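Appendix C reproduces, verbatim, an entry submitted by the partner laboratory led by Prof. M.T., so that reviewers can inspect both the input and the predicted structure.
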Amino acid sequence: MKDTKKIKKEKFSLRSIVLMAILSAIAAVVMLFEIPVWFAPGFYEINLSEVIVLIGGFALGPLAAVIIEFLKVLINTLFNGTSTAFVGEAANFIIGCTFVLPAALIYRRIKTKKGALAALAAGTVSQVIFACIINYFILLPAYSFFYGMPVDAFIGQGAEKNSAVDSLVTLVLFATAPFNLLKGIVSSLIAFVIYKPLSKILHI
């Protein structure tokens, strides 16, 4: 009951709303800068916007993390539009939440360095698992439909990077999974290093 009240307070306080708006805008800008990876097709590019969302989640709670994630994707979509009938944007939001929500929930309970590491590790593992499921069942088939390309075309792009890729399953195992693992680790390390210095400002 106490936690529920705290979540509501965070949700409706003016300070929290302002901070969420600022962090969402920063995350949307950071989302524009994407880095290709050497082991996966070109449509897998890392952006570090989840670092900002993690900081917001650690400072303001899990509900704030979801709101920032949603606003980040919404702002990016408003400025850049969509080429997948919002399937890619929805997947981005869902996969992002599978990372930041578990991390923020755990850190809320254990606000120590060990707690933060455990939170970030759990978020990373969660993201890898759900990203594989969503890519296999929804995202890659949807991209195939909206771009008018057979799924085999994506598999072929994966095979160019890794000869072990020869099916949708191996594409997910050898491209989607390591991509999300790398993204989670890099985002976690950056968030872990910069959160404490920034938390002093966020909690003023």
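The beta strands are 35-36, 45-46. Additional entries are available on request from the coordinating office.
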